[in-house]
Amino acid sequence: MFQNTKCECGHQNHVGTVLCESCGKPLMQETLVTDEPLEMRYDGVARRSQKANPNLIDRIWNFFSSVKIAVYLIVITFVGASLGTIYPQESTFISGDFSTYYEDNYGTPGKIYQALGLSHTYESWWFITLLVMIGTSLVICSLDRVLPLYRALKKQQIRKHLSFIKRQRVAYEAVVDQPGAFVDRLAEQLKRKRYRVHKDKDGLALLAEKNRFSRWGPYINHIGLIVFLLAVLARGVPAWHMDSYITAPHGEAVPIPDTNYYLKNEQFTVDYYADDELPEALKGTMRAKKYETQAVLYACTASCDDPAAEPELTELKRHDILVNHPLEYEGMSIYQFDFDDTPKLKAVRPVLVDKQTGERYGPFELSMTEPETSYALGPYTLELRQQFMEFAIGDDGNPTTLSREPNAPAFFFLLKGPGLDEAGETYLYFPREVDKLRFSQDRINGDIADRFEIIVGTMENVELTEPTSFLNVRVDKAMPYVWVGAGISMLGLVLGFYWQHRRVWLRFDADRLSLGAHTNKNWYGMRGDVASAMQHAGITVEPKSLDNGGKNL
Amino acid sequence: MGAYRKPIQIVILLGVLLIGGYAIGKTLFADEAGPLRPGDEPPPFTLLDLAGNARALSDYEGKALVITFWGTFCPPCVKEMPEFQKQYERWQGEDLEILAINLSESDLPVRNFVQQHGLEFPILRDVKRKVEREYGLKVYPTTFFVGKDGKIKEIAEVPMTDKQIEERIERIL
């Protein structure tokens, strides 16, 4: 249908214009039949995308340009996001198998919850789709409104249509002598209130305006939100986000997965509160005071993936990692997470004792994890034939190991030397006294146990493992952008909240004064501004009497 | 301003399509997270065998592979290893390789075990549980059956009999 968009003032308006872009005359049929105050949103300009014959791209554009759609999207996202809070999300677990977790812990509802994919709500395709749609809506809604609004406010006509002025929510009419002098006086007063005042050529119409910048607040806010959303989406880029856990045994540089960094735990310490530092109820309990990992970060420079060679490491940084004081290096943060201070045998330095002569040979260094296969002790040699980390007798009656941790280590030696069988004699050695008794070392060894013995003697010859530290490695390169986005957003909110865009229009038709004023909020202040300026210009008027009806905010 | 409207619309919608498509696509085809599944490619590794030669997964491109993780401390693994030896002998000359990755044990027990059971297929030595972690092992033994296309066909997280191994090998050949 053809629609005439030309105003009587001669200005050609865009399709969808509510108030003539030039003179402000109401154009829509429904606004012509009443005398209600005008809807001044976006100064009555058409949304940028409103077209007479929209094609496909225009239709997509118009969909996202609708604030109603945006509100629906936001509401759906709120509801969706709230669903994700019913049970713990998979991403909050460090590792493990989720296949039965929800059913085991929450029964049938848990099973349904997982089957619907709500156990990873925030990584699901529909949630990300909603975020993308909100982002699109933010861009398009803003663009479609800010550009026409900018244009409308950039070139405002001073002398507005009479019905535009009369139908403002703050309006005043009177007959005034010497119109020109009144306009000058009023202009002077408005300037003192920091309005920018424009008069038309004959000095009988006036436009005063202040704090226009506050109109850009919502759009600046939206730019911030878009930056924020993009930053959140950017966390999906592999190099931008990492959250992994490493086990750092004492003194060993361990690789940090997916990087070329290595981390060494030089010393882990945990301090506990003394009893006199604790309240009555907690006395006698172990309360940790401080966890600390003295850590060194390395970069691997060569033979990083070569199994035959040790990686070449270059030291990058030393830092004592405390809770909330991570080691930080180029966007990577390494946090204290957990520890294991159960002591385990690392090495012993036993001696071989000839029980008959009392002679001692050794000591020799026996590592639990990397033992030598042969030890020369004076005239005797010890050949290591088998090693068990956690000794046990298997179902078949043969010795076996239950794990690869040195929980109950045992070494099976072949002892050769003077006074012994040519082929050597076997000797099973348990470094730990408890294991020696539990597995009856002497009975297993038979008569050689009467002649020879391998013993450690003092604790000085026992090396225990130092505590292992568990650390959390995090990279979140998007975080600075999240903060920038949040900052821009806050700036926009402050601009929009604490200032108001106030405008006053005035025109004389002969000696008849028509005055209208508009603000986007705080009408009380707007009326006060007008009443006070008028009073100083010579017309006393009650601020309240300026109220022309409409929604009062 | 009006003249640029169309190009701006297209640029913005394309941008949305690109960024949004990437973000949404990632959620649909997330393969990095989670344990290995049939259809995935096995993570690459380079490990030493007992003779000290480096063997990389990529050395076996185009071959059907049986990758099994084992340790002397795991009784079902101990039982299973001789079965793999039987299979190794049965499929000689075929495009099949059996790689047995030891679960980061020390040298001696591994050598003793291999010698004792006369295992002839490559025994690889994982160090500090690196490969084991990359493969996301939960139980021992775990065996990955990899097809000639380099994709995992089947993952067995149970001890298998000679016959069960054979059936699975037939499926990847």
UniProtKB/TrEMBL annotation, chain A:
A Pfam family annotated for this UniProt entry: ResB
Keyword Transmembrane: yes
Membrane-traversing stretches: 69-87, 125-147, 219-240, 478-499
InterPro entries the UniProt entry points to: Cyt_c_bgen_Ccs1/CcsB/ResB, ResB-like_domain
Major localization listed first in the record, in broad terms: membrane
Keywords, alphabetical: Cytochrome c-type biogenesis, Membrane, Transmembrane, Transmembrane helix
Protein's UniProt keywords contain Iron-sulfur: no
Positions of the ResB-like domain: 67-529
Subcellular location: Membrane
Gene Ontology terms describing biological process: cytochrome complex assembly
A GO CC annotation given for this chain: membrane
Membrane topology (UniProt): Multi-pass membrane protein
Protein name: Cytochrome c biogenesis protein ResB
Source organism per UniProt: Paenibacillus sabuli
Automatic annotation (TrEMBL), chain B:
Entry keyword Disulfide bond: yes
GO MF annotation: an example: oxidoreductase activity
Gene3D superfamilies: Glutaredoxin (3.40.30.10)
Coiled coil (residue ranges): none
Pfam family, one: AhpC-TSA
Domain Thioredoxin: 36-173
SUPFAM superfamilies documented for this protein: Thioredoxin-like
UniProt keyword annotations, A-Z: Disulfide bond
Annotated PANTHER family: THIOL:DISULFIDE INTERCHANGE PROTEIN DSBE, THIOREDOXIN-LIKE PROTEIN HI_1115
Protein name: Redoxin domain-containing protein
Source species of the chain: Paenibacillus sabuli
